[in-house]
Amino acid sequence: MRIAQAGISQKRSRIRRLLAAAATCVSLGVVCTLATPAVAQVAPDAARPRAMAAPARSKALTRVLDAEYQTEADRKEFRLFHGLWKASDLDTPQRIAAAALMTGAVDDPSLSLPEVDPLLRAEAAMLRGELAQALATLDAARGQAPETMRSSRIRVQTLDLLGRYDEALQVARTATEEVIRNRNAEAEEAVEAARTLGIALRITGPSAPGSGSDYQSLIQLLDKVRNEQDKLYWPARLAQAELLYEKDNSSEAGEALKEVLSLNPSCAQAWAMLGQMGVDSFNFDMMESVANRLDLLASGRGGDHDPADGEEGDGNGNISLHAGLIRARAMIRQSDPELAEVSLQPVLSSYPRSREALAVRCAIQAIRYDAPATDRLLAEFDRLSPGSPLAAYEVGKALSESRQYDMAAPYLERASQLLPKWAAPLIELGLMEIQSGKLDEALPTLERAVALDPFNVRTDNSLRLVKELQTYQTVQSEHFIVRYKAGDDSVLAADMLEPLETTFSIVTGDADGGIDYKPRQKTVIDLMPDHKWFGVRIAGLPAIHTIAASTGPCIAMEAPREGKGHLGPYDWVRVVRHEYTHTVTLERTSNRIPHWFTEAAAVYLELSPRDYSTCQLLAGALGSDSLFDMTEINTAFVRPRKPTDRSQAYAQGHWMYEFIVKTWGKRAPLDLMDLYAKGQREESSFVSVLGISRDEFLGRFKTWAREQVIEWGMALPPDVPGIKDLLLIEAMNDAETGPAIKARADRVALDAALSAGDSGGTDGTSIPPRADAQAPDAQAADAGGDQPPTLPEPTSEMIARWRGQFPTHPDVLELALRQAMQDSPRKEMTAQMVPLLEQYAAARPVDPFPHQQLAKLLLAGAVPGRSASDAIEHLEYLDAREQKSSSYAVELAKRYVALQDWTKAWTKAERSTQISPYDAGNRELAATVAIKRRDYPAAQRHINALITLEPNVAVHKQRLEAVRKLVSGPK
Hints:
The chain is mainly α. Among the domains are: 13-264, Serine Threonine Protein Phosphatase 5, Tetratricopeptide repeat; 422-464, no CATH class; 472-588, Zincin-like, CATH 3.30.2010; 591-714, no CATH class; 742-756 and 771-791, no CATH class; 882-968, Serine Threonine Protein Phosphatase 5, Tetratricopeptide repeat. A five-stranded mixed sheet has the order 1-2-3-5-4. Strand 1 (473-476) and strand 2 (480-484) form a beta hairpin. Helix 21 (423-435) packs antiparallel against helix 22, helix 21 runs parallel beside helix 23 (457-469) and helix 26 (572-588) packs across helix 27. Mean pLDDT is 86; it is low at 1-47, 311-317 and 757-786.
């Protein structure tokens, strides 16, 4: 490209001739301007993130812009090419059209003027979806001058969109032959040739199966332009970003786009790719800020002024083709077809024949789970572009991301059949088959994909994963298959089947909130040896921030162990029960369940009490009115805005699920699931089952939640004063400070009453504010000093008085504990504080602190009249909430051993091996308890684990032989 997307070559004489010719034909007073764009309107949204700012401008670019040797005409041309034009630079239809194309305003009137370069007009027509017009424009231009490399690329791209692949290949081969031979091709010609060959490569596949030479040749061609010909020629870096993104190399693609935008902040194509990467990674805030930037660019606010500065508006008016597409795709990723349609509709209104927009429309219909309607839209698309796989691919990908694996597969297969050498449908299909547990089908699919695209990062990782999993061993029970790597992981695999079958009974039954549904097939548990392999198993990439995940019929979990490459021990039984609940709810609902709801059911069925940090988080969110609404909670799981958002989403969802069960009964969540399975959306499902809308539900939930936090001791009843209130009362009762504080309080109360517009007289009229009424800050600084009164520090006497007045006040009791610790000689809890600890534990039952302290004192024998066994209730409290350490379970096992309660000792010893299955000490303890209770098979299991974990310790084999003799009895 010359002025628009592909830019201007180092030799820009042709551009100057075009601009001069256009200037002579059109007076400056009648040229079209970008300030009046012909794009659709959307309603402003004040909560939407502002437009993203461009990266810092390249220093090299700035030096050239400021160079003294540049003439003003050269600077104008240079500014236009780099998207930094001044308003006065857009002084011809040609320049206006070039800027419009660059910024994505493809329906700008200037792009239809006959005097504008036909290549600009043809490319704009192609992007609008007016493909016949694009070809006709190119044909007309070919009759006037030889076809350039750029015109050939536009022709090939247009034929590709039409599904006319034979013609596209013929044009591509003829056009690029000279550039490939000519190693001294200009930058523009080389980049356009690389883009053309990239399209051809998707049609033909590599020159040899699995060969990367074609891709490497493209990269080298672009590298030469960038490194040897013109370091500022941003189209070369943009073309590289396209190739890297196509290979799922998002990290390097992002770096390339950052460089492009530092050289051209007005390049809509680069911004659009960045926005799509935000959609891919569930970074919807980033996506929206990019979409706003695209809106601004399309509405004529590019050039030397950065629209992100806000002086030109906030971007909530006009939208662009690119912005509408990425917003729609973001809604598809969130399984919200209604909002996706709202986002896409302005695009379809302005660009009704855009193939990309029409393909996305098919995907939106697909996630409504209406196959006949989806197929009708696909048929309409096929009539426009017969043979194009674009729409079928968009549908299959959207259904796959919605976990509609069986529905997705035929569309992805159809896309692959339409364009057999295009790797993308096969990649998506292979990854989907891994997620659905069909490794035998995934292997040949991924092998075909790698043969077509050997540089795709996710595909290569996933193929290696499948081959790795094929080497794993398995154990299985009635409802589960555990797949594991030979070696140490065999000790955990041997433990898993019995707890898994217990999990099956809990989750699939109808007691304790069970889902009352049994999966049709065995569930596969992939025990991955380390975090890297776990990440590849789940996402195709080694970096992922969790320890277990369900993809439906398969659950992957990382080995719970210490060491490099691991995230540490964890309660795998609780974690897998959570994930298995996903497996069951997803199948019961045909994978059609709101994200928050499946997570809520999974946390509910962990059957474990909330820990203190969760209670604090929920109480804080409720008190600050920052609980999520029913839309925000789904986004918070996948793209949190704050560090606490994901944790809050899990916790709030569980809380709401609990509210549903307690208010409408245990069948209510199951009835909702059944409606979701039929494709009914959440709003109407709530009305059908709960009898109220989602907004009404949230209001009632908050009322119930306030009662909950009071029960937790995390909030006070309305008639109970807080610590600040109590201190204020103390200050008011003080002989020295009291009168002034009382006077201030009276004055503030009177002013507030007189200033309240809605607190009128008995006749309903409002009392006007006093003329001298002050603002709250001024009131606070009034009588009694310039500053609000300083509250006194609580003293022992105050705390003792408050305890007498409010004996169950959790904050007062906490303050009393702090005071008692501060007054003790060693600044720690003592036996004298036991009654206070017990009172605080009762007043704030969610806080583990008093239980930790009581257990410590009792185990140390520091409480007269009590024994170490009295610590058991506190250890049980702590162990019930512990997920990552086996220390409480080990201590409880020892306490029960001391009491010779072998059943309870066994339960806790076994739990210690579930949290830390690779800990030899825990295995020793479990084996010992098993022998004491004469459970010799269990003892053998744990001793066998010790032999695997510590093969050089001879005593383990001796103990195993001794147990075998006990099993066989005397000869």
